[in-house]
Amino acid sequence: MLNLFGLARIRVIEKEIAREYQKREMRCPIHLSIGQEAIPVGVSKSLNTKDYIVSTHRCHAHYIAKGGSIQKLISELYGKEDGACKGIGGSMHLHDKSINHLCSIPIVGGSIPIGVGIGYALKLKNKKNVSVIYFGDAATEEGVFFESLHFAALKKLPVIFVCEDNKYSVYTSINARQGNRSLKKIVESLNIKFINTLNNNVNDIEQKTLQARSYAISNGPVFIYSKTYRHLEHCGPNNDDDLKYRPKKEIDYWLKRDPIIIEIQKLKKIKRFNENKYLDFCNSVRKEIITSFVNAKKSKPFTFSKLSKLEYAK
Ligand SMILES: Cc1ncc(C[n+]2csc(CCOP(=O)(O)OP(=O)(O)O)c2C)c(N)n1
Ligand SMILES: [Mg+2]
């Protein structure tokens, strides 16, 4: 049930954030990952703690799956000094050097060259670790995406590109933005190994990342492509299906293929699903996050007067 717990942990945390956000005490935009949990859980499960990750505006799940502190996440959302970025960054800038989550960049595509730079450093230092770069489908439309892939391939860097294709950039579908172009052909034309994964299937993503990791260390970059779907609005805690930019048929299709449902079905098939254990686990995460809300509200807010005393560059 380990992978199911990984998925459920993110789901419960994100749902509690969505509920608490309605009180308007967290004053930063939030991009929740509900529905997309299989990718970070499967990827992180295959990584060594010394492997690096970089992320995007939708970074909570990446941070949690890599082992990020929930208290630091929640305090960050409230703009408090004990937050992951000392209350300065908010939801879209989560990072924590102690878990090798080096940055989250909300400029679409912005973290890709940084992740490639980390891969270059790993190669120059002869380290047997990888740099994992998470990005959405829209990032593959940015110029820096092509430049970064080209450089990573040329230098045979230990980089795993992880494309989370949730089919949308805000309200615009991938078909309207990209037409019929083949991402696989683009990636392969740059001499990068392309690996497709089963939609929202945490075990498949874990296995393929394991293979990708050893390939990347010995041979150079790998591109993991994973289709998924966000359940809520692009930015914020609500459901926006009433806006009808996503067809109902499509939403229903993906709700049936929720990563948690897929994992529970698999566990039931092999008679390994223990419902009580699952519910107890979800309750324990709920308690942990509610305590984090209480603590965060009591913590000191970030103050500008302290800015000059912070030493981030070290
Ligand atoms: C360079 C740039 N252009 C536009 C935006 C505004 N913007 C923020 S998130 C987003 C959608 C990104 O879509 P995708 O990369 O697919 O990630 P998703 O939100 O679907 O996870 C856009 C257009 C931005 N942050 N940066
Ligand atoms: Mg997207």
Index terms:
6-stranded parallel β-sheet, Rossmann fold, binds thiamine diphosphate, 314 residues, two-stranded antiparallel sheet, 8 strands, 12 helices
Gist of the model:
This protein has 314 residues and is of the alpha/beta class. It has twelve helices and eight strands.
Topology:
Elements: H1 2-21, H2 38-45, E1 52-55, H3 60-65, H4 70-77, E2 101-104, H5 111-124, E3 131-136, H6 143-154, E4 159-165, E5 168-169, E6 172-173, H7 174-178, H8 183-189, E7 193-196, H9 202-219, E8 222-227, H10 248-256, H11 259-269, H12 275-298
Parallel strand pairs: 1-2, 1-3, 3-4, 4-8, 7-8
Antiparallel strand pairs: 5-6
Helix pairs in contact: 1-11, 1-12, 2-9, 4-12, 5-6
This protein binds thiamine diphosphate (TPP) and magnesium ion.
Magnesium ion binds next to β5.
Please explain how this structure is put together.
There is one protein chain. The chain has about 325 residues and is α/β, with parallel strands linked by helices. It has a single domain, classed as Rossmann fold, CATH 3.40.50.970. About 45% of the residues lie in helices and about 10% in strands. It has helices at about 1-20, 40-45, 60-65, 70-75, 110-125, 145-155, 175-180, 185-190, 200-220, 250-255, 260-270, 275-300; strands at about 50-55, 100-105, 130-135, 160-165, 170, 170-175, 195, 220-225. Helix 6 links the parallel strand 3 and strand 4. The mean pLDDT is about 95.
Bound compounds, please?
thiamine diphosphate, magnesium ion
What's the CATH class label? Alpha Beta
| Main beta sheet | 6 strands, parallel
Strand content: 5-15%
Overall pLDDT metric: 96
Number of domains: 1
Low-confidence runs of at least 5 consecutive residues: none
N- and C-termini, Cα separation: 39 Å
Alpha-beta classification: alpha/beta
Shape: globular
- Cα gyration radius (Å): 19 Å
How many strands? 8
Multimerization state: single chain
